[in-house]
Write a structure and sequence with these properties.
Rossmann fold, 2 domains, 10 helices, alpha/beta
């Protein structure tokens, strides 16, 4: 698997490096650590020419430090590790590199802690998650405010994951990809299918509505159990679960919160630029609101979109 790991020298990026090192990934593994220098857009003048070169030089030093810190953070990975530096808009450069390098996975850090920050997510994380041509892992870690770059990052354990599935083809493609990952019995995966509650507006259709709701619940559980059985064959401890909700994204997010999952997996069809901009209301809601890291499995993305 070819992995593009985006870093910027921040504590969040270092946590993303450590998270990646703990995440089960298919071998052989190639990891390219990428950092982007993003100089300000200025109108060159006699005054700006005095400070602009020094500013860019400083940013180059910051980038160099970010790459070396990233290398140290993933040194325990059994992987071929390289580094790369670009200049320009950070999100655009990450997506551009992921495309031209034909990477299988791109990893970025989300910087949000609070509920509001999770909704905002961060322009770079959001842009990459939406536009990347490949699967994207957005790492969200709760980091104490007093923790600095020089503080040792405690071990990261990734054991509990929630995988959102439904009856669509995108879920089948997602499971095909997720089954490539080297799960073990230390990983407890829960496949979750959400069915939407039906509202009854007229008493004369109450019986038929209840019958349809029961059918949906049964189908949702069947779908979740089938996906769990598939993952169990891949070595994971997997179980199926279904939830009946008024809003699918909210229901999946709440379930992940209640169960304390370490990560959530959602699928994206990646049929082209328009669908990537939209991403999918459920996937986008989960990405913006869930407390933990999110793996967006993207299949069939059009690289030239």
């Amino acid at each position: 698997m070819k992995v593009l790991l985006a870093v910027d020298g921040s504590i969040h990026a270092l946590h993303a490096c450590k998270y990646l090192a703990a995440f089960p990934l298919p071998e052989p593994l190639q990891v390219e650590i990428l950092t982007v220098v993003n100089p300000p857009e200025v109108v060159m003048s006699a005054q700006s020419e005095l400070w602009y070169p020094q500013f860019v030089e400083h940013q180059e030093q910051v980038a160099k430090h970010a790459l070396s810190s990233g290398e140290r953070a993933v040194r325990d990975l059994d992987a071929e590790i390289t580094t790369h530096q670009m200049m320009g808009h950070v999100g655009h450069c990450i997506v551009e590199r992921a495309t031209e390098g034909k990477f299988d996975l791109v990893v970025v850090a989300a910087k949000g802690h609070s509920a509001l920050e999770r909704v905002l997510l961060g322009s770079v994380s959001d842009y990459v998650a939406t536009h990347a041509p490949c699967t994207a892992l957005v790492v969200r870690q709760e980091i104490p405010e007093d923790r600095g770059l020089d503080d040792e990052i405690p071990p990261i354990h990734i054991r509990r994951g929630m995988i959102a599935v439904d009856e669509r083809g995108v879920s089948e493609a997602m499971l095909n990809e997720v089954c490539r990952y080297p799960w073990t019995d230390e990983h407890q995966l829960t496949t979750v299918t959400a069915s939407v509650k039906l509202e009854v507006f007229r008493e004369d259709i109450l019986a038929s509505t209840m019958e349809e709701a029961a059918r949906r619940r049964t189908e949702a559980r069947r779908c979740a159990d089938a996906a769990a059985a598939r993952l169990s064959q891949c070595g994971a401890r997997a179980s199926g679960h279904s939830v009946e909700v008024e809003h699918v994204g909210y229901g999946l997010t709440q379930y992940a919160e209640e169960q304390g999952h370490d990560f959530v997996v959602v699928g994206d069809s990646g049929r082209g630029l328009i669908s990537r901009v939209l991403l999918g209301s459920t996937s986008r809601y989960v990405l913006h609101h869930v407390h933990c890291s999110v793996l967006i499995v993207r299949q069939g993305a059009e690289k030239d979109s």
